[in-house]
Write a structure and sequence with these properties.
Elements (H helix, E strand, L loop, with lengths): L1 H22 L15 H6 L3 E7 L4 H16 L8 E7 L4 H12 L5 E5 L1 H10 L5 E6 L18 E5 L3 H14 L5 E6 L4 H15 L4 E6 L6 H8 L5 E3 L4 H4 L2 H11 L3 E2 L3 H6 L3 E4 L2 H16 L17 E5 H6 L6 H5 L4 H4 E2 L1
Parallel strand pairs: 1-2, 1-3, 3-4, 4-5, 6-7, 6-8, 8-9, 11-12
Antiparallel strand pairs: 10-11
Helix pairs in contact: 3-12, 4-5, 6-7, 8-10
Keywords: Signal
Organism: Paenibacillus sp. SYP-B3998
Pfam family, one: ABC_sub_bind
Length: 349
């Protein structure tokens, strides 16, 4: 009798389990946070991989990178959440620069950014499978990074960090406001194409006013101080271009300009904020942000680099550092100040 009751119990239990299985609907897979995962949510949860190659770290290039990442963040791509950044600094070494580009080319990236001409050239040569953008490149045509600014072909586009008018406007400012300046000393690494191009523009502009450009060449940052010292007595003013080697060692030029009361002109805002007197330019953060917006178009909206024309800065303004002027023995006139369009932002007290 006990065995019969046990058998009946087992049969009834099996039936209940079967009925429960037939009547239960499959629960959707739960995503993080308890919400149901859908195909759209799965797509939104994609983690984007972006590799960055930067020739060296200094304020302008760092600000470019920061602006780039800020544009991605504003578009919902946040590092550590749905964005993985592989940042590489070549430390100004061309061997490192090539090795970094080769490493990036062998990886699976959704996008690659080259910051500064040498880094952009290397990644363009090596990376063929991923979209490539460049920033802080003076002349992408001369550097053979692209062959057409309006219709870049292949997998490459980006933004140039110079408008040829910037150099000529700065030299016009020098000629108009510093009648005693007859020679301008330029510390330059002629191995950087961007520096050579800008130096030629400066030389052409100055020559129209009978002002001579005197060059002091360097091959690495450690030589910048000695090169600047060699210009003392030969030049009435100092000038630097968007020269990564020189900008990395610019503190020594600022110190010398202050000690010897020599006007110091730069081609980038960050150096003016640091201690040079004047430039015609823009914020590199904004430049990087602009390239970041291009990256968003590629990553989130399916655009291809070939669809995006290469841009150049179009909002140039004279930027003055009044504290630097005092340190360099410069009397800032109302005429100088009136040449600044946005006085609130571009006259640095």
């Amino acid at each position: 009798m006990l065995k019969k009751k046990t058998l009946v119990t087992l049969v009834l239990s099996a039936a209940l389990v079967t009925l429960a299985g037939c009547g239960q609907k499959a629960e959707p897979t739960k995503a993080a946070g308890g919400s149901s995962a859908t195909p759209a949510a799965t797509a939104a949860a994609k983690t984007y991989k972006v590799a960055i190659s930067q020739i060296v770290e200094h304020p302008s290039l760092d600000a470019t990178r920061q602006g780039f990442l800020a544009a991605l963040k504003d578009a919902g791509l946040v590092e550590g959440t749905n964005l993985k950044i592989d940042f590489n600094n070549a430390q100004g070494d061309q061997t490192n620069n090539l090795s970094i580009a080769q490493k990036i080319a062998s990886a699976d990236n959704d996008l690659v950014l080259g910051i500064a001409t040498p880094s952009a050239q290397a990644v363009v040569q090596q990376v063929k499978k991923s979209p490539v953008l460049f920033a802080a490149v003076t002349d992408p045509l001369a550097a053979k990074i692209v062959s057409n600014l309006d219709k870049p072909s292949g997998n490459v586009s980006g933004a140039s960090d110079t408008n040829p008018q910037a150099v000529s406007q700065l030299m016009e400012f020098v000629a108009a406001n510093f009648p005693k300046i007859k020679t301008v000393g330029l510390v330059i690494n002629e191995g950087e194409p961007n520096a050579v191009i800008m130096a030629k523009n400066a030389e052409d502009s100055l020559s129209k006013h009978g002002i001579k450009l005197v060059k002091a060449p360097v091959t690495n940052t450690s030589e910048v101080k000695q090169a600047a010292q060699s210009l003392v007595g030969r030049a009435d003013a100092f000038l630097i271009t968007l020269d990564n080697t020189v900008v990395s060692g610019v503190d020594s030029i600022i110190q010398l300009a202050n000690d010897k009361k020599i006007p110091f002109f730069s081609s980038d805002r960050d150096t003016v904020e640091k201690g040079a007197f004047a430039t015609v330019g823009f914020k590199y953060y904004d430049h990087g942000y602009q390239v970041g917006q291009m990256a968003v178009e590629i990553l989130k909206n399916g655009k291809k680099p070939a669809d995006l024309k290469v841009t150049v800065p179009d909002k140039l303004d004279l930027i003055l550092n009044l504290k630097a002027a005092k340190a360099e023995g410069i009397e800032v006139t109302d005429t100088m100040k009136n040449a600044v369009k946005d006085k609130e932002k571009n006259i640095i007290q």
